[in-house]
């Protein structure tokens, strides 16, 4: 959804604080080899086509989705506020942990406007097309909307999201380093799999959860972030069914998994509900136990806390696991 262009300025009180800070630290800016956070106005066009302009790079950032939390922290700027901190720590925090300076600002679906306003933030980063929510937050602080997922090319999309955040936080040098590390990890992982000679075996990545007596299975297609990473290192994704059109996620159940009865593949999973759905939840199921990859034991659980919808550092952790599954 596109909305009208709008230019944002840091509120006067915050601008004064930032200006005073910049004046007091100009001689030290960049001393650690990072970007110049005391630079002048910064501006980007966000995912919704809006111009977001700040009088100076943001230093106090609130992030309302976990990928953006990770990206901000990966750039060397610990967010002042995060939506659902406990969830981030459980599901996404393995690659980039948060420290005890961060404040929880409510849920990702319904963040607390009062909590955000009370933090004196100079930028909120989020994924949404909810114009009412954006407008409510913008009464207090500028908002940058990132894309979050793109089934056409999730790696290129991730780079765009990183670059937007880096530009508005004065962390462009750090972004270049972050991306160079990520590309190096792709190259190393691809080389390791090629050396092992195992890359011809396809993989199926899925999470799942129980719905009463049934087990729902959510495969990650080649168009998902996980799938894009698999393709980047030369692997074939076994899921060829329909996806949701946004995140690259399919849908099936244990009966639907019968299509893989005689398929030689590596099944990689994590649990959407935190349980052991692909061990305890399917125990004794004849369809499941007759699958070739189950009988062969080529089933692998992604380590806990690795976010499959994350940024470059979570993606590196996923690549490490591809290497472990295929090359160790």
UniProtKB/TrEMBL annotation:
Which InterPro entries does this one have?
Answer: ABC_transptr_periplasmic_BD, Bact_iron-sidero_bind
Q: Which domain of life is it from?
A: Bacteria
One of its Pfam families is Peripla_BP_2
The compartments listed are: Cell envelope
Q: Of which family is this protein a member?
A: Belongs to the bacterial solute-binding protein 8 family.
Signal sequence segment: 1-22
Report the protein name in the record.
ABC transporter substrate-binding protein
Residues forming the Fe/B12 periplasmic-binding domain are 60-328
Q: Which UniProt keywords apply?
A: Signal, Transport
PANTHER family in the cross-refs: IRON III DICITRATE-BINDING PERIPLASMIC PROTEIN, IRON(3+)-HYDROXAMATE-BINDING PROTEIN FHUD
């Amino acid at each position: 959804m596109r909305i009208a262009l709008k230019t944002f300025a840091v509120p006067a009180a915050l601008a004064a604080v930032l200006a005073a800070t910049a004046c007091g630290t100009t001689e030290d800016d960049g001393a650690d080899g990072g970007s110049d956070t005391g630079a002048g106005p910064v501006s980007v066009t966000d995912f919704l086509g809006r111009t977001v302009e700040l009088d100076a790079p943001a230093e106090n950032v609130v992030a309302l989705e976990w990928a953006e939390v990770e990206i901000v922290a990966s750039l060397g700027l610990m967010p002042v506020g995060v939506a659902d901190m406990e969830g981030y720590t459980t599901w996404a925090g393995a690659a980039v942990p948060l420290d005890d300076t961060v404040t929880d600002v409510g849920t990702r679906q319904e963040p607390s406007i009062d909590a955000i306003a009370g933090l004196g933030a100079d930028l909120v980063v989020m994924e949404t097309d909810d114009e009412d929510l954006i407008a409510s937050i913008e009464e207090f602080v500028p908002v940058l909307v990132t894309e979050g997922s793109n089934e056409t090319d999730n790696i290129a999309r991730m780079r765009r999201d990183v670059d937007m955040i880096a530009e508005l936080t004065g962390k462009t040098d750090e972004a270049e380093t972050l991306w160079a590390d990520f590309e190096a990890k792709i190259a190393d992982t691809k080389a390791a799999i090629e050396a092992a000679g195992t890359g011809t075996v396809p993989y199926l990545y899925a999470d799942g959860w129980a719905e009463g007596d049934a087990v729902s299975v959510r495969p990650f297609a080649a168009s998902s972030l996980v799938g894009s990473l698999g393709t980047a290192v030369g692997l074939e994704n076994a899921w060829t069914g329909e996806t949701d059109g946004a995140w690259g996620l399919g849908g099936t159940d244990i009966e639907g998994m019968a299509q893989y009865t005689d398929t030689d593949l590596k099944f990689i999973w994590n649990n959407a509900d935190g349980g052991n759905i692909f061990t305890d939840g399917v125990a004794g199921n004849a369809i499941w136990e007759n699958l070739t990859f189950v009988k062969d034991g080529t089933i692998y659980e992604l380590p806990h806390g690795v976010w499959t919808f994350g940024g470059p550092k979570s993606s590196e952790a996923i690549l490490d696991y591809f290497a472990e599954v295929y090359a160790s």
